[in-house]
Amino acid sequence: MKKDDVSEMSRRTFLATVSAAASAPLLGAAGAPALAMEGGNPVRSTPLTTNYEGANFIGVEEKTELDEAVETRSLFRFYGFTPPKKARTFEEEFQNLMGVKYALGVTSGTAALHVAINALGVGPGDEVILPAETWHSDYNAIIMTGALPVFCEINESFAMDPDDLKRKITPHTKVIMPSHLSGTVADMDRIMAIAREHHLKVLEDSAEAIGAIYKGRRTGSIGDIGIYSFQTAKMMTSGEGGCVITNNAALYERAIRFHDLGGVRPVFQRALGITDYPRGGQGTEGDRGGETTLGLNYRMNEETGAVLCAQVRKMETALANHRRMHRYVTDKIKDLPGIHLRPSNDPEGEIGISLDLLLPTKDLRDRFIKAMTAENVTMSVGILGTRNLPTMGYIEDKVAPHPNWPSFNTPRGKAMRYGAACCPRSVDLKNRYASLYIGPKWTDDDLNDVVSAVTKVHAALRS
Ligand SMILES: Cc1ncc(COP(=O)(O)O)c(C=O)c1O
Question: According to the model, what pLDDT value does residue 360 have?
Fold first, then answer.
């Protein structure tokens, strides 16, 4: 059965069981506990709070790493009083974790996107396809190259819909940019097959899914180049920070140059196996060999590298814990009639930071969220940490850094219309999803409260 059939069946089942839901009272059937929003006792007496992922695990290990870096007083990653090593150590450990040849630390996920998209050689006249539901930085990075962003619908997995992706490809398409949102995984087999068939490059945004696995490979490592964010809400964090990964030496070199004013310092020359790089005046570890091309400064510093060294070593434990919690809750609610858990492109590999329920209508979704929140188990609209970009004002208005910006000055750029009409299915899905971030340190009692609240609200809404 196809996912859409599942959705249609679920919609009919749920609608049948909640017929006339809009007018029915929300109090449960005889004997069912009354909903808190109708004056009943809430499942919990205090709100179940979720907070930042990796930040929960910041402890003595991060402090030790940071102290070591500060004690050297050498916080610039390439040279100082003593040879700095935290940023480089982090890169080496992260590339091992992700199973790729090269990792380049940068200052943020947005910086990583800017670096990666420049490494891919995207520029004016090119089109880049991104999902309608993702984060601002994807769209903004495309605009900053002068290329034209083209939105593609998401499907029920809340990731890029490969069928719509095919429809969005034109002779101007250069890159496909799938996003793995809130710990989930996009359908990379189909996306990669489409990309290869059309000779397109793939930039994977795995900012929100650090450590997730798609069919045995880490997200971010499957396409030509991938990015991560280490902002405070992410699975690993240094407050701010980001990383670009790739297996492609040419892309790695272009990324290095763009992130560091156009040059390749000795630490990266060694990583690339370059032995005949032109030396600059100094001949030291800080020597970029002359500014050979254009680039900006997105370099990671030693403090960031130090914190990330500690965080990367905690990843597997944090991931296993999240997967266990997610499985515990979903196993207990998956058989409730009409409850439609978000279908996954690889259930084993997802991180499980978010419990996502797809309801038949927006009205029911809104009532579900209101009822859950009153039970002190707060749910949110859509899936947390994502935006329906085409409906954002600045995007609908095609705001650019300058009136003559190239993105919107090609015939296709001028004709491009964003807004809800360009992604009706994504808008509809966002309107029917309710999601709950699973806190990294929740106890079994907390998880049982989630199950109780979902079961209670579900029963009441069916009555
Ligand atoms: C999907 C996605 N991509 C990119 C970014 C950008 O990362 P940063 O905030 O580190 O710039 C984020 C940040 O939240 C994100 O969620």
Answer: 93
What does the pLDDT average to over 382-410?
Answer: 95
SS3 content of the chain, % helix, strand, coil (to 5): 40, 15, 45
> Tell me: the pLDDT tens digits for 148-186?
999 999 999 999 999 999 999 999 999 999 999 999 999
Give the model confidence (pLDDT) of 340-370 as tens digits. 999 999 999 999 999 999 999 999 999 999 9
pLDDT value at residue 370: 97
Domain spanning 3-53+316-462: which CATH class is it, in words? alpha beta
Ligand 1 center from residue 136 Cα (angstroms)? 8
Q: Is 139 in the pocket of ligand 1 (CB under 6 A)?
A: no
Rounded to 10 degrees, the C-alpha dihedral 331/336/340/342 comes to -10
Look up residue 222 and give its two tokens.
């499957």
Q: Is 109 in the pocket of ligand 1 (CB under 6 A)?
A: yes
386 lines ligand 1 (CB under 6 A): no
Domain boundaries in the chain? 3-53+316-462, 55-314
Q: Examine the pLDDT at 263 and tell me if it is beyond 80.
A: yes
CA 178 → CA 128, 220, 261, 298, distances in Å? 10, 10, 28, 23
Angle between the N-to-C axes of helices 302-312 and 86-98, in degrees from 0 to 180, rounded to the nearest 10: 40
**Residue 340 to residue 182: CA distance in whole angstroms:** 18
Task: State whether the beta carbon of 135 lies less than 6 angstroms from ligand 1.
Answer: yes
Residue 343 per-residue DSSP state:
P
Least confident among 37-41, 275-279, 338-342, 441-445:
275-279
Q: Can you name the CATH fold of 55-314? A: Aspartate Aminotransferase; domain 2 (3.40.640)
How many other CB atoms are found less than 10 A from the CB of residue 1? 7
Residue 128 has pLDDT above 70, yes or no: yes
Q: Which of 114, 158, 208, 383 to mutate to test the pocket of ligand 1 (most atoms within 8 A of CB)?
A: 208
Residue 291 clears pLDDT 80, i.e. is over it = no
Stretch 82-111: mean pLDDT? 98
Residue 5 has pLDDT above 50, yes or no: no
219 lines ligand 1 (CB under 6 A): no
Rounded to an integer, what distance in angstroms lies between the CA atom of residue 131 and that of residue 13? Answer: 29
* CB contact at 8 A, 237 and 230: yes
Global confidence as pTM: 0.93
Ligand 1 proximity of 229 Cβ (cutoff 6 Å): yes
Cβ distance 109 to 325 under 8 Å? Answer: no
Q: What angle in degrees, to the nearest 10, is found between the helix axes of 424-432 and 362-374?
A: 30
- The Å distance, Cα 205 to ligand 1 centre, comes to 8
